[in-house]
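worker-03 picked up job from queue 'complexes'. Input manifest follows; four sequence lines, order preserved.
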Amino acid sequence: DLPLALIAGPCQMESRDHAMEVASELVAITDRLGIGLVFKTSFDKANRTSASAARGMGLDAALPVFAEIREKLGVPVLTDVHDAGQCAPVAEVVDVLQIPAFLCRQTDLLLAAAATGRVVNVKKGQFLAPWDMKNVVAKLTSAGNPDVLVTERGASFGYNTLVSDMRALPIMAETTGAPVIFDATHSVQQPGGQGTSSGGERRFVPVLARAAVAVGVAGVFIETHPDPDRAPSDGPNMAPLSQMEPLVRELMAFDAIAKRRGG
Amino acid sequence: DLPLALIAGPCQMESRDHAMEVASELVAITDRLGIGLVFKTSFDKANRTSASAARGMGLDAALPVFAEIREKLGVPVLTDVHDAGQCAPVAEVVDVLQIPAFLCRQTDLLLAAAATGRVVNVKKGQFLAPWDMKNVVAKLTSAGNPDVLVTERGASFGYNTLVSDMRALPIMAETTGAPVIFDATHSVQQPGGQGTSSGGERRFVPVLARAAVAVGVAGVFIETHPDPDRAPSDGPNMAPLSQMEPLVRELMAFDAIAKRRGG
Amino acid sequence: DLPLALIAGPCQMESRDHAMEVASELVAITDRLGIGLVFKTSFDKANRTSASAARGMGLDAALPVFAEIREKLGVPVLTDVHDAGQCAPVAEVVDVLQIPAFLCRQTDLLLAAAATGRVVNVKKGQFLAPWDMKNVVAKLTSAGNPDVLVTERGASFGYNTLVSDMRALPIMAETTGAPVIFDATHSVQQPGGQGTSSGGERRFVPVLARAAVAVGVAGVFIETHPDPDRAPSDGPNMAPLSQMEPLVRELMAFDAIAKRRGG
Amino acid sequence: DLPLALIAGPCQMESRDHAMEVASELVAITDRLGIGLVFKTSFDKANRTSASAARGMGLDAALPVFAEIREKLGVPVLTDVHDAGQCAPVAEVVDVLQIPAFLCRQTDLLLAAAATGRVVNVKKGQFLAPWDMKNVVAKLTSAGNPDVLVTERGASFGYNTLVSDMRALPIMAETTGAPVIFDATHSVQQPGGQGTSSGGERRFVPVLARAAVAVGVAGVFIETHPDPDRAPSDGPNMAPLSQMEPLVRELMAFDAIAKRRGG
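worker-03 finished. Artifact:
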């Protein structure tokens, strides 16, 4: 059992400078704490609740920024892809391709992501049972790519609410054999819950992250922003950047016990 | 309130002859019954549970068959599209473009479908509340296409099960203003419920169709096959073609009462 | 398949005069329509959301009123019992003992109700699968009482919401062998949804009742009140008494088709 | 924040000797670990899935055993009550009266339990939202008894399955003001899932207990048995007695971090 890793960054790449600023700060925090970091941000929000919502910088503008962050800060980067055609160009500048939850059963997208040879992180659909992720992972590994991560981000629970079933973490680990990530940001989302945008409850991010780390995960995914209430997307769910260091420090303490290295 | 319409056909286009045979039989049945028919079949099953499952004939082989069915049988046809690039070529030969439930929030796909000017039928995601479909419909209508249908096909209910909330039918009608279709086939699906394929319970197709028609819908969607147990996909949910005529006749009787024309 | 029966009345017995007035009006309506009536009202609301909410007249005051309604109006009456000790005295004046949903697994209450020899109507717990009602019914029948009804009143669906799974109606009929009732009033309840009381959406009572009758049930349960917005309990879910006649007439038309006597 | 407490014992009081044996062993374990123990066992299983299932020793036989355990072992004891009349006699020999989840809204039972002056532990119904427990607690405190505990034991999630929403723990703490217990045994129950009995998955007991303790709870409730597979009830969910010591030790380590005393 390797120590906990952190996948973090702002939901959207808002600008080159914004992405560099957040990435730099996260590198500084994780260097102090001694935890591995993968920097995450999205170039396109392809499934916003409303068509008029901001979608991000777009692929062409974002790729050089990903390249610059990797090169200047020495940190691996992760971003999500939405159709098969994006996989190859994105794979040239990022380390991990992420498959969004709604798209986790789109065979062509999975095969194109697998074909890049990059690590692929697949989010479990809100509509999927944890044991069904083995079929999703098999689509990737049978295409010749063994480097797969699976991410829990909540299951549908009535309308406009998700629930995080902590049993899903060991079930996915056992049935897929892949490292399991817990996405504490989207697990507190309230899909569609604000009429024309999705709501969320930021205060539950540390609650669910603590629970997942105590159960035992390979990594935790937390979106963060210097000023979440002004972020163009997922603001209600993102943790303030200023609160990341104490939160991650605490998660590392739980992780040490969970993995029996300090219990 | 217009009388009930029927969207029906085999899950996959298995071959030109198979599609023609089923379509001809459905035209004969619906002519006898006096109900409007839209013939449905899929050229690609893009989100099968397993990557090794049969996916259908593919776009290039299917388009001439759609054209032939329309021309020879005089019946409108519907098929589903999975990425933005498919919309324009498919729209040349079909009357209704259908957006799969998992993809109902993919903005680019919705906008490309809307841009064709064809009727667009959007299935409600298993993870969406009925009132949230107004945002989905707004993506289409704000793109200049007022011809939108919305389809209920079940909501996630625990793992490997869907539930059909009959309240969703009037809620979607009121909040979107679009005609509402009830998909009796996929509502009885048990997603992932057979390990490497999705299960289902065909015996509940008439149960849920009766309920939905009594509540009041514009149309009912029923996949059908001459021999469902040998169908390459969705066999457990499809109604045998031989049982369609009595089923549809009964639904028409419920529809007459529901719409106060015969009550 | 016998024709549809109606179980109806005000949620609470508010006073002798109030109960007589509603019962008389329901007898008049059902005589005009030609449908069997069981008059339902509760002498005690034993599980209100809040301890300060009105609970009804109580057992001692209510029993003579039940007796008077039966005698003067010639209509069978139904009421719910909450502990084993109530069963025998209540059974002296009512025709059907009803087991509340929360209590459907309390063995002592079920056995005491069965021992009276009266018909027992058990509501399915919001936490129970429809196939699990066979164990509940077996507790009653194995105690020597074959006269059992089972009632669907919604299943938990996330928080503060119920969903009516129409598949539950045939499943309960098949697995228990008992006549199945659909409770259209409590199925639209929003448990706890108003802070210190339960909410509900009265407008969905006819929606769900139509669906259930089209699927096929032995009876439908609808609470009604001359002025629901002033009722001491379940006001948000109760149908206005003035709307009962057209609603029940419509349900009878659906029932005739569902049971193939008029289709 | 006080250190974690443990509520533990066998589901049923099977005999005087069996109860004494398990209680003695738990006292020894918790003395070694330095954690407070409340011994739990039931004298009657009043809501078994099937009427023919074993129900326990019964009230009269059990009361002297509770008294003996308290006196000889010096450990507080907890048991559940099922109707108002049981509260006073049970309160004479036990320290904590527990209200079963199905009965958490039965006003008379709550008031009778409150009137004893003993601590009352109310389990949250599988059908209740966590914020709705404030009404339940208010029924107890408004009756003059401030000594209330609330217990999370899973929420209905589709059929035959519960899910443990870890957000419920802080929500209940905030909205009720009462100490919150996590019941790791019944949270892994599969209600009705074995046809004529409830199933469960014992392997998830430590998973969910770790998650809850990391989130932060006043106590954890774990049923245990020397030989769970031969236990008359809840065997599939109970932890083997031989595994309790390492499990509780680990939970105490998580608790120390969660409460910032050792983080």
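worker-03 released lock.
Chain D touches chain A at residues 155, 157, 163-167, 169-170, 188, 201, 204, 207-208, 210-215, 250, 253-254, 257-258, 263 (CB under 8 Å).
Chain D has a mean pLDDT of 94.
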